[in-house]
Amino acid sequence: MRGVWSLLATARRRHHPVQQQLRLVSAILELTQVVEDLARGLDDGAPTSEGFAGVAAAVRGYLVSPGYVRMRDEARTVRAQLARVRFRVEIHGPAVGVGDPQDEPDYAAEVRRTFERFAAVDARVVIERPEARADWDRVEASVVERVATLHPDPFAALDTFTARHDPPVDPLLSNLERELSFYLPVLDLFERLAEHGLTGTLPVVSPDPTLSLPALFDVVLAAKQARDGVPTVTNDFSLDGQERIAVVTGPNQGGKTTLARAVGHALVMACLGLPVAAGTTAVVPLIESVRTHFPQAEVPQDESGGLRDEMRRARAMLDGANARTALIVNEIFSDISLPDAIELSGRLLRSVSDARALCVWVTFLDEIVALQPVVSYVAQVDPHDPAIRTFRVRRQPPDGRAHAMALARKHALTSEAITARIRS
User: What 3-state class would DSSP assign to 285?
Assistant: First the structure.
């Protein structure tokens, strides 16, 4: 299909109408080959899935449709008529004449016979069709116009045919090509990730509000790390039964945002019928929309301020949200005072809970875990060195203060250590 689109695009860029028409005929003949190859491949593959079986049936139906059959047969007839056109070009200095070949010998064949002994072994001769080159110059255009005068019938058939079949690509084929050009590279990506021990799977889509993503990973980050030879950390994430909101806390650069993004990716990919970057027992609820709220840089011309912009975007995110909505909220209210951030987060959490939306909320505020019935996930650090992030995120109560105390002990900043240094 790339070849078809290229031929159609270059046809529109040509200036001479006959060159445009010849390119269009080439595009249609290329298209018929594509369709027949596609039908043959689908028949040989004998797909059993409802989707691909439907595609195969639609392609077979298109192959026998009156419009396609007429376009294919007329294109082949026009090309055959043009292929039978013969003419003679006479060059006398600056003068160029065009006429019928009559009984003159084929000098091109004679030249080939003379020099064939010097031909390289297995050499390929590529004959470029005139319509495949760039715009014809004045002499080439004049020759073609003279040939059309000598042989009016084939060129009249060409003109009639191209007027009837422009554009020639059926929406069935263009839509299928566009969707497959996205779907197939995704499958290729998961095959490459599988070589690095990262599995993707088609999840079970459940009508119940159950989300289970074992061995979840961020597919974009994993693709980059696979290229760089860096292993990817996976995490188990789930919301069961009446659980609708997960609050993710922990140290900066600990993997919180990556986890939230991975959940969002999984929900969107599941909605598209794609594999998700999780283990073989993945289950996702039936989601109608995935909405996000991530930090944005302030616009100097916006006099309303960053907080008002955050509130405006939060209201838009919640507008019409329901049990079939998934929300990914990342570090909201991070630029205001702690009491105000807790107050506003509590109000927003109540709105999310009232809407029954599924939500993953990344925050630095441990306190909001107690504001609503939520599930707490915490980004982990090395127990022996709190400065080292493990990028593991586990379901457990928040431990922000414990993490702070561990850092204080590591750097001898506890009150006992400071007091001891002062006394000494």
Answer: strand
